[in-house]
Design a protein that fits this description.
DUF3597 family protein, 138 residues, mainly alpha, globular, 6 helices
Length: 138
């Protein structure tokens, strides 16, 4: 599980689609034979049902309601955001998150990387059903 996934698990409820594992279910050959499908025969993938509208989660309310939220500057600092979520905020962890999010800048320039990371995490939260204040995302 990646760092971004850990962030999602700390903010979104366990029933939220953003924290649900995504896996493709393959039909084993034995099941295909018992279903009357010849080995090597082309199979049609099952079409998933239409997705229900994604429930919006108020990220600001959740983070503001956490213990230590008043003493940490989670609104602008990726380090404080990770600390608030009880996740590893070390430089190595942030570099891993940067790699996970395809950061193309210089990871030795931690100030620039941190600003970029915070913005990207907020964008990812918003893209996955989080209600994030406009000033915290692109």
């Amino acid at each position: 599980m990646g760092i971004l996934s850990n962030i999602f698990h700390k903010i979104f409820p366990s029933s939220h689609p953003a924290v649900q594992p995504t896996s493709t279910q393959a039909v084993p050959p034995a099941s295909m034979q018992s279903a009357g499908v010849a080995p090597g025969a082309p199979t049609q993938a099952a079409v998933p049902p239409p997705a229900a509208p994604m429930e919006q989660v108020d990220v600001e309310a959740i983070l503001s309601g956490m213990p230590q939220s008043q003493s940490l500057n989670w609104r602008t600092s990726i380090v404080d955001l990770l600390k608030l979520l009880n996740l590893d905020s070390s430089l190595q962890s942030r570099k891993e998150l940067a790699h996970e999010l395809d950061y193309t800048g210089d990871t030795s320039d931690s100030a620039s990387m941190n600003i970029w990371l915070h913005r990207q995490v907020m964008n990812k939260l918003a893209a996955n059903g989080g209600k994030v204040p406009a000033d915290l995302k692109d």
